[in-house]
Write a structure and sequence with these properties.
By secondary structure, this protein is an alpha+beta fold. It folds into two domains: about 100 residues, Ribosome-recycling factor (Topoisomerase I, Chain A, domain 4); about 70 residues, 2-Layer Sandwich (Gyrase A, domain 2), CATH 3.30.1360. Helices cover about 55% and strands about 15% of the residues. The chain has a four-stranded antiparallel beta sheet, covered by helices on one side. Strands 1-2 form a two-stranded antiparallel ribbon. Strand 3 and strand 4 form a beta hairpin. The N and C termini lie far apart (about 50 Å).
Length: about 190
């Protein structure tokens, strides 16, 4: 395994970190309804736990409304319980056939709390990317010790790795800024 393999693996793992941050940021509630808000909420049904999007159709028919149409009507109460247990702070309205979630506008205090949460999620993304960099640097050191690559190759690899790391951290920061902007819209 050479320097290129280590860099390719690192790039792949950093991309996975960004995807994870995207999912976490998408789950943070803004004043607008979007299906990503609840699709991954885990619902316990008949002894198994599964994400909402695997047991119901989730739609956003209006700017401040989500509808959840379970494929099995018996799942309505389980979905309702999962929504009440989630940290979204939304009250589900169950009409016997579907669940409606009205998304109220955010208060200023709640916006500030959510922005802090965005910062936390962004920082965890930074840590994940830096951990990938650390692991890759360790792999390069082991390869030098095993005489698989030269020290010059190691230094070139570390420079490329740092550029890669900086690039992915900048992408995470941009996503965090976008989410902050979205949260501040009234």
């Amino acid at each position: 395994m050479g320097t290129e393999d280590v860099l390719a693996d690192s790039k792949h793992r950093m991309e996975q970190s960004i995807e994870s941050v995207d999912r976490e940021l998408q789950a943070i509630r803004t004043g607008h309804a979007h299906t990503g808000l609840i699709e991954t909420i885990k619902v316990e049904y008949y002894g198994t736990t599964m994400p909402m999007n695997q047991m119901a159709t989730v739609a956003a028919p209006e700017a401040r409304l989500l509808t959840i149409q379970p494929w099995d009507k018996g799942a309505l109460s389980a979905i309702e319980k999962a929504l009440l247990k989630s940290d979204l702070g939304l009250m589900p309205a169950n009409d016997g056939a579907m669940i409606r979630l009205a998304i109220p506008p955010l208060t200023e205090v709640r916006r500030k709390e959510l922005i802090k949460l965005v910062h936390t999620r962004v920082e965890s993304g930074h840590v994940a990317v830096r951990n990938v960099r650390r692991d890759a640097i360790e792999q390069l050191r082991k390869q030098v010790t095993a005489k698989e690559i030269s020290e010059d190759d190691q230094h070139r690899g570390q420079d490329q790795l740092q550029k890669l790391t900086d690039s992915y951290i900048a992408q995470i920061d941009a996503r965090g800024r976008d989410k902050e902007t979205e949260l501040m819209e009234v």
